[in-house]
Amino acid sequence: MGPTAAGKTDLATSLCDNFPMEIISVDSGQVFKGLDIGTAKPSKAVQKKYPHHLIDVLDPTETYSAAQFRDDALKKMREISDRKKIPILVGGTMMYFKFLTHGATALPGANKKIREEISQIALKIGWQGLHKKLCSVDPVAGKKISPNDPQRIQRYLEIFYITGTPVSEIQRKQKHITLPFNLIRIALLPNQLDFLNEVIQKRFKSMVDRGLLEEVRQLRSSFPLTDQMSSMRCVGYRQAWEYLEG
Predict the structure, then answer these.
(1) What is the pLDDT of residues 7-42, one digit of tens each?
(2) CB neighbours of residue 75 within 10 Å
(3) Using CA atoms, how far apart are residues 13 and 52, in angstroms rounded to an integer?
(4) What's the predicted TM-score (pTM) here?
């Protein structure tokens, strides 16, 4: 695990060169088909050489939760282990890692009507305003969630409106779940943030040069997308959508 552009994929493939391993992607954007450039998805050549899992499993109009990831990842971990290989989970979506290691809280599924209502409120008062609303009903979650994280703000408010109970309260009552695997945690933590930011800037410029905006245009013409869908809220795609809207 580690931040954007820390070198996770390079380290993972290097490990695969030296150990009998298969890679499981822990990336909330790479699960979607067509989101290639903006998610820094491994190339087809890399995926062919090094077996990858949980990449390109959904159309960009579909939704995917951390709980679903946990179920899918555990299934893949068992299958890889049965092949006498070592599953290596690689990515930067920390919520996925948290759900994998701590278990999924029993939360209600998505409610399309309530999500749409929350989206309409967001159009009126903005996500910063909705974040304040979240802080008023669930102060614990409000402190943890960034005002610039619309996906989690919407989900936590959605659960509150469905259940009448703050998510933090539901999670507090959850029993800790142990995994049937021995985890070795490897975190890439660059100690020079200025250098990392420079690498990220170069990566983003490279994405634009390679056709990030055209990729988003193509996705918008190929699928009935909206800017409220999970795929289009991924970092980079959200900003590209806003740019294309002027």
Answers:
(1) 999 999 999 999 999 999 999 999 999 999 999 999
(2) 12
(3) 10
(4) 0.77
